[in-house]
Design goal:
By secondary structure, this protein is an all-alpha fold. The protein has helices at about 1-15, 30-60, 70-100, 105-140, 145, 150-170, 175-215, 220-260, 270-290, 290-305. Helix 2 crosses helix 10, helix 3 packs antiparallel against helix 4 (about 105-140) and helix 4 (about 105-140) packs antiparallel against helix 6.
């Protein structure tokens, strides 16, 4: 299967060294669309890796940061670490070689494997983050029975297994109809609808809690819990907003292509993919902006890196 995959990529690039996989041969990737992608991926990939590693370390080492919400965000950060370590640099190297007229089909195949594994895995992790917030605010008394470490340890591997299966079907599958509608369209659409509906429920539930706090004399513990949950929800909103901003252009592109509408040139797909991978760089910045203790930990690590302690 790998040999046939390489043969397909080779045949698509044989006539034109600056043609992306899946494009018609009359569509050329211009230098103006490649160079910004190379620069963005090349500059952000080390920061994506380092910042997300620091986020994971902060959650692991700081007991106060080891809430279920932060643990789910740390699991999402693992996918971002791998994006900065593999997908972004591989894509930048491959596009650089393409610009120089050097065809490297094996390198592109490796990039495709990492990208098509990490993209759905990140999206499913995001759905888990939203689900955790939904249970915390909608079912606060059942939260500790639903969101347990055991359930988290079952849900996170499921995301990775699905991402690997998704990659295998997308890269080596023969039935294009089943591949697109079952493995691509249905899961992503289902997760997107779930996230939208969940946020509508969370919005109205949060407003109800705020009215209760203003009109009723609630115990101080309940008020503090509502405030903490509301702050965690706002962090999740920013994370989801960042992912949506980076993901929606790519989803609209493929959705329009499915209906035969080609508003975006195929040569600009490189920028769409770059925009999607850039989300892995934005996530740790949001964590640090929203959580003071995590921000202090990252600055402390940065200070020690610049001025090491003897």
């Amino acid at each position: 299967m790998v040999n046939s995959r390489l043969t397909n990529i080779t045949s698509l690039n044989a006539t034109n060294p600056l043609t992306f996989k899946g494009e018609t041969q009359d569509v050329h990737v211009t230098v103006f669309s490649i160079i910004p992608c190379i620069i963005i991926n090349g500059i952000t990939c080390p920061f994506t890796f380092i910042l997300n590693v620091l986020v994971i370390a902060a959650v692991k080492r700081r007991p106060r940061l080891q809430s279920n919400a932060n643990i789910m965000l740390a699991c999402l950060a693992v996918t971002d670490v791998l994006t900065g370590l593999t997908a972004q640099p591989l894509y930048a190297i491959w596009m650089t070689l393409k610009t120089l007229g050097i065809s490297n089909c094996a390198l592109y195949l490796v990039y495709e494997i990492f990208f098509t594994t990490l993209a759905p895995c990140s999206f499913l992790h995001l759905a888990l983050v939203v689900l955790e917030r939904l249970v915390a605010i909608k079912f606060p008394f059942r939260y500790h029975h639903i969101v347990t470490m055991r359930n988290i340890k079952l849900a996170v591997p499921f995301c990775w297994v699905y991402g690997i299966l998704y990659c295998m079907v997308l890269q080596f599958g023969d039935n294009k109809f089943m591949m697109y509608y079952i493995w691509v369209a249905l899961p992503f659409v289902s997760c997107f609808v779930f996230i939208i509906v969940s946020y509508l429920v969370l919005y109205f539930e949060t407003r109800r809690h705020q009215r209760r706090i203003k009109t009723q004399q609630l115990p101080r513990e309940d008020v503090e819990r509502y405030i903490t949950d509301n702050r965690a929800l706002k962090t999740t909103v920013y994370v989801v907003g960042s992912v949506s901003l980076c993901l929606v252009p790519m989803c609209l592109y493929y959705l329009l292509r499915a209906f035969g509408v080609h508003l975006v040139k195929e040569s600009n797909r490189a920028m769409l993919r770059t925009f999607l991978m850039l989300n892995s760089f934005l996530n740790p910045l949001i964590y640090c902006w929203r959580q003071k203790e995590m921000r202090q930990y990252l600055f402390k690590c940065s200070t020690h890196a610049v001025h090491p302690v003897d």
